[in-house]
Every structure is written in C-alpha cells, then in structure tokens.
C-alpha cells in the first residue's frame, strides 16, 4: 500500500470509465456528462490513507487524552471552486483562459458549469471529442479546449492512527453544507452507534428545513427532483476504528480493519 498505488487506482478507474463513454457515445451521448466525486479510506499497518477527488469530506473524531473531549479533525483536501486556493490552482493550470472559473448566480463554477475541479468521469470537460453534438447544449462549451478542464488525480493524506482516534465520518458535501465538522462529531459521539449515519442525515435535513422555513415533515414529502432546490444529495458512512488495528498488536491476525454498530460473529 502506498500513495502511488492509490493514485494509480484512481487514474485506472478514470481511464476505464472514459473508455466506456467512448464505446457508448453514439447510443448514449449523455453519459459524457456523468461524473462523480470519490472519497476513499484505507487502513494498512497502522496508517490511514485518505484519497479524494471532488468536494466530499472525511472528518476524524479524536478524543484528547488530557481533556477527554472529542475533537473534529478534517483529513482531506476538497476540490470545489468556492475555495480560493482551488480557483488559484485552476488559473495557474489554465493561464490563458480568463473564463476557467466564473462567478455565476453567486456561486463559483469551473467554466460556469460545475463546482468541482476534480472528478471521476465528466468526460465532456476532459476530452474535447465529447464536448459537441449530440451532447445537450447546456453542457457544451462555446470554444474548444486543448487540455482537460477537470482532473481525476486524487489528493492523498496519510495519517498515523493513535489510540485517541475513535471514528471517521465520510460524507458528501450535502451533509457539510448543513452541519459543521464539530456538530457532526458531537452527534456521533453522543448517540449509540446503531443508526448513527441516518441520525446525521436527519440532523442535516432538519437544518435545511429550518433555513428554508419549512417543517422537517413537510420537507420529506417534497418530490426528490424538487428537493434539490432545498438541499444537495447526502451520502454518509461512519466507520468506528478498531483498537486492534490502532495498537498494531494483532493487525495480521484480524480480518477487520473497522467495525460498525453490529459486532462480528463469534466462533462457535
């Protein structure tokens, strides 16, 4: 396991998806506009590797030995044009394109189309051959591009696990638009493990309903397509860290690197 291996895996996934786009282009041209963020966590030999493309986020819940408080530690770099450093990176990579990032309806977007600067897929912004008819006009750029606008190269963080590291919250930006890192960690730390990801989603939806001055029960009744005007989609995984992995004493003997709310079966 290494940063090189993880990067190679991301780029191979990207290569295979773009190959699929090429094969299906004539029959299903809109596949060229399909893309995804990707957030990966790997535990190996007491090290936690976090790799990310897009604007999902992983936050570590760590209990401080002195105060017994559980702190929120963000562990990944996000690639969203709303972040100044991301805009600067894009401008540096595309110095001759004054429209590489555009403020549109008070939101920064790459080429005025998309908020993320890195993704898996989104072939229409990576290969000029897919940025033309029969792709829908709203995805097509008015001028051709010579180099990929978006990248699939992940940002990778390596964290040495310690005994105070308790859990990891992996979530799409829909959660983090409604809850702060600290709020999410407090919820996970304060409630039983079983159903904790669902509880985080409910807390985010309640906050979204509050911002739009509607009741939570009424928000849930709104059709999914219309709901996108109230909040982004939300995906959450909470992983509780196994102390056997952290202390390294039985790292080669256990088949579990993480445990959820349900304990592993015991041998008979």
Automatic annotation (TrEMBL):
Highest taxon of the lineage: Eukaryota
Pfam families the record matches: PP2C
Designated gene of the protein: LOC107432859
PPM-type phosphatase domain location: 1-241
Natural source organism: Ziziphus jujuba (Chinese jujube)
Origin organism lineage: Eukaryota, Viridiplantae, Streptophyta, Embryophyta, Tracheophyta
InterPro entries registered for this protein in UniProt: PP2C (IPR015655), PPM-type-like_dom_sf (IPR036457), PPM-type_phosphatase-like_dom (IPR001932)
MF-aspect GO terms: protein serine/threonine phosphatase activity
PROSITE patterns linked to this entry: PPM_2
Protein name: Probable protein phosphatase 2C 38 isoform X2
Coiled-coil stretches noted in the UniProt entry, renumbered to this chain: none
């Amino acid at each position: 396991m290494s940063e090189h291996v993880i990067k190679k895996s991301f780029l191979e996934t990207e290569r295979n998806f773009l190959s699929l786009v090429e094969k299906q282009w004539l029959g299903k041209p809109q596949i060229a506009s399909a893309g995804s963020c990707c957030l990966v966590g790997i535990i190996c030999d007491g090290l936690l590797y976090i790799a990310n493309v897009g604007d999902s986020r992983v936050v570590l819940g760590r209990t401080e030995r002195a105060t017994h408080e559980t702190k929120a530690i963000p562990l990944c770099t996000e690639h969203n044009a709303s972040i100044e450093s991301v805009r600067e990176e894009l401008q540096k990579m595309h110095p001759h394109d004054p429209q590489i990032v555009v403020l549109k309806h008070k939101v920064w977007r790459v080429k005025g189309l998309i908020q993320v600067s890195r993704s898996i897929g989104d072939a229409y912004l990576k290969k000029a051959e897919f940025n033309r008819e029969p792709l829908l006009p709203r995805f097509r750029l008015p001028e051709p591009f010579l180099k990929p606008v978006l990248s699939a190269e992940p940002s990778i963080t390596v964290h040495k696990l310690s005994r105070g590291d308790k859990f990891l919250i992996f979530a799409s930006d829909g959660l983090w638009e409604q809850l702060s890192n600290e709020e999410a960690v407090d919820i996970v730390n304060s409630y039983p493990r079983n159903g904790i990801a669902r509880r985080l989603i409910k807390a985010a939806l309640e906050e979204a309903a509050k911002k739009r001055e509607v009741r939570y029960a009424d928000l849930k009744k709104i059709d999914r397509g219309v709901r996108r005007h109230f909040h982004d989609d939300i995906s959450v995984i909470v992983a509780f860290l196994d102390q056997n992995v952290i202390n390294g004493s039985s790292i080669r003997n256990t088949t579990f690197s993480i445990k959820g709310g349900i304990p592993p079966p015991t041998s008979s």
